[in-house]
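Weekly modeling sync, notes
Attendees: S.R. (lead), two postdocs, one rotation student

Agenda item 3: backlog of single-chain predictions. S.R. asked that every request posted to the team notebook include the full sequence so nobody has to chase files. The rotation student volunteered to paste the first one in as an example of the format we agreed on. Action items at the bottom.

Example entry:
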Amino acid sequence: MNSDTAFDVHPLDGDAPSSRVSDEIHRILSRATEVDGTAPLSEQAVKAVDAGESVVRFVATDGDRVVGYVGAADGMAEAVVDPGYRG
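Predicted structure, as returned to the notebook:
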């Protein structure tokens, strides 16, 4: 992959992402934690991935694969990008 790669960004509608998308987001969180040595999102933001809270969620995709996630609530946003897609 090079820095010219563009990703599609999609809002996630509804109370929570589908189980497939949720699983992909949690795998990204695990990989990022392992690579970075620290969790990329706060505990509250991780819970909000699947919660029916008033969170605005977006995913970045490369084809059908989720490669990034952003969750925004209460005036704050937290994001994670799959380590294999950074750069």
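Discussion: group reviewed the output briefly. The mean pLDDT is 90.
Action items: rotation student to repeat for the remaining queue; S.R. to check formatting next week.
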